[in-house]
Amino acid sequence: MEFELFHRYGPALLRGFGVTILCWVAGSIGGIVLGFAIACLYRWSWRPVRWLLQAYVELIRGTPFMIQLFILYYGGPYVGLVLSPVQAGILSFVIYGSPYFSEIFRSGFGSIPEGQIEAARCVGLGEAAILRRIVLPQMLVLITAPLTNFIIILSKETAILSVVTVPELLYETQTMAAETFTYVEPFLVLSLCYWLLVVLTSWLGQKVEHRVTRHLRRANA
Amino acid sequence: MDFSFKVILHNLPFLLAAAKWTLLISVAGMAISIFLGIFICAARISRAAWLRRAAAVYISFFRGVPLLVQLLVFFYMLPHVGIDLPAMAAAILAVGMCSAAYTAEILRGALQAIPAGQTEAADALGMSPVWLWRRILVPQALRLGMPSLVNELILLVKVSSLASVVGIGELTRVAQNITGQTYRPLEVYIAAAAIYFLINLVISQLGRVAERRLQLN
Question: In angstroms, what separates the C-alpha of B155 from chain A's closest C-alpha?
């Protein structure tokens, strides 16, 4: 093991890790926002719009991420969309994640008994208040675990961004491996970094879950 | 270089033959994922602390380690302890067991959303735990978790492409081979993507049907 190599390549790896985290966090947040918007639109709009949204979900969810990334990055310039690698990475992440997130939110909406929503309307709550005070708190119980799952999956999919030369963790690791002919040390560090992200995410997921299930524990006590 | 449908037509039989292996890995992996996922989920919320801890370790291992590494462990490391799996079995097991960790978490989230009063009522009626799970908890958890489960199963179809590293000629590997021979990546990969898309479309439609069937009214 030659860990002295990290004196030279450490900063590059750290920068790569930073880019990985940037793409992952920005992509997840964008995906969640877009996914939530899709799920809301799906719930409260006319049938033709729903068909369009469903077609979008099936199309994006059904095709491999790498191919979407290729089309956006190499095909984009043909329609005047010239993106830097990092921009393409974040945008493709937002698009790729949104159908998965929207399906998770749809399952959350489906878990709330209609009677509760009707009752809320009867006592004069507005639609926004119903969403915020009745639907969201209850659906978070159901969807926190799948949301955590998918955010973890996204963290590992960032590695694919290296194929369009986004200078993220895998890209920097491969560069180091190719220049020094060492493979074990760089990839060991790479695994540790991803593992750190996963542990952090599942820990955060547990915290959120603990908080959103408060009302259940109080009722059972 | 213009888009050539001839390349796609010429190579479609090879792609479809490879898609058979993708399908086999996916379907067998799904069966393991759901079946094992139910048990891990049950262990994760059981009253016995050691079961809970074992399930938590399982989940953090299979979610935390990249599937590629798991696959290599199944194929190259298990023979050292006397378990010699054929490549196909190793691929199916790795994909299924990894996915089971995610399935277990999805089901756990869904179980929490089922009102505790139902479990108490079943207890009060003298229902045995096995019946409670079979008749009350599992059907409802599957209904609530169905969209997330379909998400997971679709991801499973796509990660089956990793099976190529243990020498299985599944869809992605064959598409790579054809690209190597024809120098037509765009056409070949679009064709491969279309096949993945069709498989996933079937899964998501089945999921919608199941969701409707499991609906309360």
Answer: 8
